[in-house]
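Re: that chain you flagged

S.,

Sorry for the slow reply, it's been a week of failed gels. I finally had a moment to sit down with the sequence you sent. For the record, here it is as I used it:
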Amino acid sequence: MAIAITPSDTGAQIRIDGEFNIYTAAESRDLLLEALNAHPAVAVDVEAVEEIDTSGIQLLLMLQKEATRTHKAFSLSALSPAIQEVATLLNLTELNGASAAETQA
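Prediction finished late last night. Pasting the structure tokens below so you have them in one place:
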């Protein structure tokens, strides 16, 4: 698993590649929250996520909820087939519909 964070004037682009699961959850959580706290907006690209489990899904939902709570813009784009499959299986419309959505309270 790799997480690349590219800061810009308006926020940060976060790209997650590879496995996003229980084995990478602890290190991912801190890094993702740090990026969210440091920028007014985050755009998360998950197109290259090859494997995800409920821990990875929980991290994406937590990041989305934390962005809303802290009044930061959040977008999730380019859902990989692995994420689409799990989101559909779990009936998580907030992930399926997040590809073009931005959340800001």
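What I noticed first: Residues 97-105 have pLDDT under 50 and may be disordered.

Talk soon,
D.
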